[in-house]
Amino acid sequence: MRILSAIKVIISSIFLYICLFSQAYSFDTKARAAYVIDQTSGTILLAKNSDLPLPPASMSKLMTLYMTFEFIKAGRLGLNEKLPVSKNAANYTGSTMFLNPSDRVAVVDLLRGIIVLSGNDACAVIAEALSPDGTEAGFAKIMTERGKQLGLENSTFKNSNGWPADGHRMSVRDLGILAARLISDFPEYYPMFAEQTYEFDGRAPANNRNRNPLLSLGIGADGLKTGHTQEAGYGLVGSAKQDGRRIIFVLSGLGSQEDRAQEAESIVKWAFRQFVMRKFAPGGSEIGKAKVWNGNSRDVSLVLENDLNVMLPVLSSGKPSFSIEYIGPIKAPIAKGDKIAELVIKSENLPETRHSLLAGDNIYSGGFFIQVRTAGQYLINMLFKDTEGNL
Fold first, then answer.
1. Is residue 27 scored above 80 in pLDDT?
2. Does the predicted TM-score (pTM) go above 0.85?
3. What CATH number matches the domain at 33-273, 1.10.565.10, 3.30.470.20, 3.40.718.10, 3.40.710.10?
């Protein structure tokens, strides 16, 4: 008998049923790599070369921003703290705040310099201030380490700003993960990403506008970061929110600013028009049971951790399928609220999504008679060579 065997249960609850019509279509993008996710439901709507490590250009500045926000939140850096500008930082060209070594610049100004103006020099100033050895290279190393902790499996950083460097790489999926974390972890700073202009000390009249082409279109776009180098092409990490739904998208390797603007606008409109979110059940709803081993109950209820929101193609003839997966029987004791299973959802033309299921009850270890019963069941199953792994 296999006590720990994979069990899949198909849910037949009446509320988990929907009938849609016609055929869904995917988006044919010009981008070398693309990634689109509906953040509200966790559904990946598009993935093209999504795990391919590519030069990210200035889009990798999002990692510098994320770590800066972490330092501020931890009280290790102040928004009004003024940081010195090194020669290394001042020597950066491309998109800059036109900083010089005689400057001391407030962190809040540097943040806007990075977000709105895409300042390479501003990134270097912050990197050197937060680096364990005072160098930008040292900060790049901890960027890579922190990125792995965040789940950025295909990202390696060589500098703070995306300046072309051998081995400086990110995948579009990693950029999407990072964008989602910026939005959810630091909502107090996220409005900065929607700011369209920023003037620093009157120094850069030709560089005072946000390059994100979607911010002024009235389609719910509110971030995040553009990028461009000759090697990387034109890219954009974007997000937009409409009617309570938020999407995050990443495009990389486009041929021109015009291509980037057109492709980004098209992909936002496609994501909102071609998919619809259905709420099937609120968080806390019981949707099934799991078998229990050696407990004071033979099973435990399974409840949703969060609202069950399912993204579906508007023009689909298929029905989503729902199944529960867990490794079981689950050994007692089990505490109410423990994550013990997953609800797996499959829809036509979309990757599967998973929702955590929690124990709805406290299940205690069985007493003497429960242990005798469990041992007896085990012996009977062994004698009859029960290969199904059922109690």
1. yes
2. no
3. 3.40.710.10
